[in-house]
Amino acid sequence: ELFTMFSNSVTNGGKTTLAEKLKNMLPNCDIISQDDFFKPESEVETDERGFKLYDVLDALYMDEMVTSIRNWMKSPASSGVVTEELQNTCDNLKNVYILIVEGFLLYNYEPLNEVWNRRYFLTLPYEECKRRRSTRVYQPADTPGYFDGHVWPMYLKYKNELEENASMQVDYLDGTKSQEELLSYVYSDIIQELNRLRE
Question: Where is the signal peptide (predicted)?
Fold first, then answer.
């Protein structure tokens, strides 16, 4: 049985950390990260202000990402991800393979809309998001005004599109909560969903 979930987030919302912790707790769990599919800087468009437009789908090799997800779904066992100690304690989940896809721009991408069993979206208020972003080192580095001029507006646009899509079931999570609290909630939700699917 296959179970795919997606962890989406505003920049620095904590999705990668959450995904890694979930991987260690769930049986036969693998992660595909959207960050691995960024185009090289030379292929990313620059706007009239000189900002590199990284926070749009065109900055990513999305077709390659879709191929990776489809390949995993065709043959999850060949990914080699087996969590031995969990298999002993979760007998009813032995034949379940879980894929976590984590990134910042996925739910509005049509070719993947039918893939997800669960969708989570980590949110942060403006000040906290900007503070966290300022502590990270990016290649290429953020240019002055980049967060306010490109990153935050694109996040708001994307989030508004999601909220306006009535058919899209998304579980919005408060990224200011502790990692332990978020992990506990998402883990319990996934186990509940897995049990429901098996009924």
Answer: none
